[in-house]
Amino acid sequence: MNTESGNSFPENTVLVVGAGVSGVCAALQCARSGVRCLLIERSGINGGTLALSGIASPGLFFDWKGRQVIAGIGWELVHECVETCGDTLPEFTRYRAEDFWRFEIPVDPVVFTALCDEKLLAEGVEVRYHTMLAGLQRQGNSWRATVCEKDGLQKVVVRCVIDCTGDANAVVQAGGRVRIPPVCQPGTSSVICSGINRAQLIPEQMENDFRKEAAAGRIFPADLGWSKGYSDLFLSRNGTNANHINGINGGDSRGRSTMEICGRLALLRSYRFLKRQPGCENLHMQYAGLECGVRESRTIVGEATVTDESYRTGAPMADPIAYAFYPMDLHDAEEGILNTQLVPGALPSVPRGALLPAGQEGLLAAGRIISSTRKANAGLRIQAVCMATGQAAGAWAALAIRNDCPLRELPYEQLRAELLRCGAILPAVNTQSNHGNAGK
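Predicted structure:
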């Protein structure tokens, strides 16, 4: 039992770092598997990008033919949120690749995050908001973690750590290797615009005025959409998920601070420009999320890697622990969205080795940081997949603790049986694969 600085947790505790959708699913699965879980989150709310950045449309849970391929805790939370709000689900059997986004599921962030808190409390998860990981050191068969709470640094000793930070912060602190793209996908600072009289908008005047203001350096193309020329994306989406903050890696505090400041300045430039346009005199902006949405920062170097080709074609991967169904949705500062569709009928899988940082024991990664090449990650970073890998990591950690077994030595068949039992993967999903070690 560790009792340093007033913290008392069994050493068989799992520490989940980050309460985004992957972290919530990981923590709930640990608790439901009978293992003590401490969930820490740097902000004051769960949900990650869904709540903090206003991107609240998880998907995709169903494939080409309307067959469910992602279920488990993530689907439970989304489905319960839809039912609570009296909303309806898309007609998944009518899927079309050309407008795939219509099959995402809009959720109310307030209801969704409250449901998550309700379930975390009911399952006995110890939740610490306003808490960051400040240090991570391997100590025998355990991890010695330093966490920074509002009153200062605290120490906890845990058996397993699951990195759900979205930026591989825990893996970096543990000394693990990461991949950092030379240029990251742009971030987005979302707002909700109101007070616009669209009948009075004059598109030709707006475009001409934009060119003059852009030439004077008072607004930039990416403020309203992309990096080339005038775009009506910002207005057509009422400010939500529309602008692009380019050339910044938000993986660490310095980069994230730069991104947040640049995002707010982009909104200010947009406001000043639009406010002077006919029909926008009464423009009002309200934050859709208080943080800039980050699409890409860094991924772990894992014992296995999902490649662009294996993702696009759905080629069988060793020891699958989750499935994905989303095009390779890569945002590019110059070219816009470079959307690569999956091969018709393909169903990409996530091997368990993609969650296991190379050379590390007692440490897992889930969410958008799993080991993957860049275009593959552009499909894997989506919220439904993050939910699935989070639950898989929670099941894996809990099972290894209950069996007093190192993570990489846990037989895959045993892990798969647990994932089937808890509904994290569905027996109806085609699971052609080469069962082998996590590192293959």
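Summary: Residues 1-6, 431-440 have pLDDT under 50 and may be disordered.
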